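User: Hey, my collaborator sent me this sequence without any context and asked if I could get a structure. I don't really work with proteins. Can you help?
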Amino acid sequence: MRKRCVLPMALSLLMLSVAASGAETNAPRAGHVRPPLVVESGTPGADVHLNTEALPITELARTMRTHYIEVVVQGDLAFAAVAEAMEMFDIEDPLSPVSLAVVPIPGDWTRGVAVFGNYAYCVSGPSGAASLYALDVSDPSNPSVVWSELCGVWPVAADIEGDHLYIADRGFGLRVYNLSMPAAPVLVGELAVATAPLDLDVRGDLSYIAVAPGGLQIVSVADPQSPVAVGSFSPSGSGYGIMVADSVAYLASDNFGVYIVGIADPSNPYQLSQYQTPGYARQTVLRDSLLYVADAGRGVRIVNVKNPASPVELGQVDTPGETFDLTLVGQTLYAADREGGIAVADVTDPSSPALRKVVGEAGAPGKAVFDGRYAFVACGIGGLKIVDLQDRLAPVVVARVPLGCETAASVLLQDTLLFAGSYTGGISEGCLDIINVKSPQNPLVVGSAPAGVYIGDMSRREQYLLVADGNLSVYDVSDPAVPVRVGGYDLWYSSVLLLHGDYAYTDEGVFDISDPTAPVYLMPGSWGLTTTGFAVVGNFLYRTAYFSEGFDGYIYVYDIANPASPVTVASLYVPQEAHWISILGNSALVGLSNRVMELDITTPEAPDTVGTCWPYPLARPGSDGGLLVGGSGLYGGGYLAVLRMGDVACGDVNGDGYAGNVADLTSLVSFLFRGGSEPPSLWAADVTGDSRVNVADITFLVGYLFKGGPVSACS
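Assistant: No problem. I've predicted the 3D structure and written it out in structure-token form, which is a compact way to encode the shape of the chain:
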């Protein structure tokens, strides 16, 4: 920070402004790299600092929370664990839930929702440093976090029995909290469990714990301060969800279906039967001899277990996503359907249940484009969403567009036309839609056409749209109302495409497209590994790739002075799958499985790692210097993040290149108290380094400028 001379009068005016009002800006959590900034009204937005001496990536905002993992009901309220938040619904009309509030919960994921009177509890991490949160929900439209405390390694489930809260921690075992003071639970007992607990159901003096691997552990909690293991059941599979009724336990066991276990003698549980579901059984609920199974990937199965030794399936609910949890209220079923939101079904007739609606922000953000104000996001089964980013700290979804096929996969923006690709379950057919977005709040589908089995990247050249849809397909879109496929080349399963001059680079080779209607295959199948993205700068082509899902990857650099014959000049190993690459100046941003990596490519033949940040990217970057990222973290905590590159020094509040002068002080006062513009970087404005932008930062700057105070502490 550089000191500058200032006039005492300027200081007096600034301090009078501060005395006249008391504002504070709170910016919620942005990632693992540094503590969260706190911004006013809890709207998503904060900074992620990549490297304190180099180029920071700034996360401006998050929105579109997705991936509903858990749902519980108390009275006329439903509570859902969704990404990094808890969402509350009014279910007075059971078939028409209304979202009341979304409470951001610090951490990477929210799980373990339980309700006790006017308080709701949940757990959230990062793994290894997770916390238990208590929320006052006495006013359902305005719930608030009132207490939190570190509570273990990896807590994932919770249950309440009497006045005690029981937490299953997959990194430890069982923890017991006393709720005599519900706003401040007290840890009173613990029991280590050898394998990872994933769920629990506490009934009276016994806690039934689903563990993986291992199946079922039964623990006596007659004395909550001293839990004692009393029995176990170890089937072929693992335990993911547990439900107990009478003397029977129903153990959801992933691809092994549901084990039905006799527990009349807790010390000697035994198998009564096994019901094999077609999907991955994650949770069960029992009502009147009917077992409802959350069967991830295959909806909800309804099974008659009147005779536990001989279960019979009666019906099923086809939910739009992957069902992980469920609960019943009367004859209404609520299913936490991951990226599908909360699925609501009428099960009055269990042999013919009816899916009524899906509530919540359905659909995990995928590929996206960005025009400077609006983001156009392909949200999988959630369709196409248009997000207004005028206020980067408070993005708003302004429109949803149904597409020709059920799963939105890709988008391309050309002037006022948006090209959207989608496909239908099982990747059996694809659709191309052309949408007029001159008015983003009122998008209009103007044309459509069938497409290949999966629409990936798209690129336009004059009147032609080239699409990697399993093949390389070429459409004439000179009349957007009547797109016509006029050429192409049959490939195996191409989904990655980049146009550069007269050449198209795909994941299955290089094409000469001087005549777009008749692509000429120049370099078939010689890339190696699984290609996921391309970028071009000058005579250099950058390619991201990985071995196979779950394995490490590489970034390759090619000299394309001869575009038809790329020559490898560099390769860089990365510790995760590499999904995309975007070039901004002398920096390349690479989307890995759960982070963004920054590379210095000043010398293309020798790319060098600068740093990383953690917005869990899956989407492609946008344009005009902004980076749009959609993704999912642990347990699929999906969101849309907007990132910005910028060389902003700590204390340079107004972003003019001079840090810590009167202009910065004036800018900060204006922002906090006079409705002035947002600083280019909230990170740079947090000169105290306390993760808050408030009057303390003004006081800090005053002390530095006029009283010989310490230098800034942003980093």
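In plain terms: The longest helix spans residues 8-19. You can pass these tokens on to your collaborator as they are.
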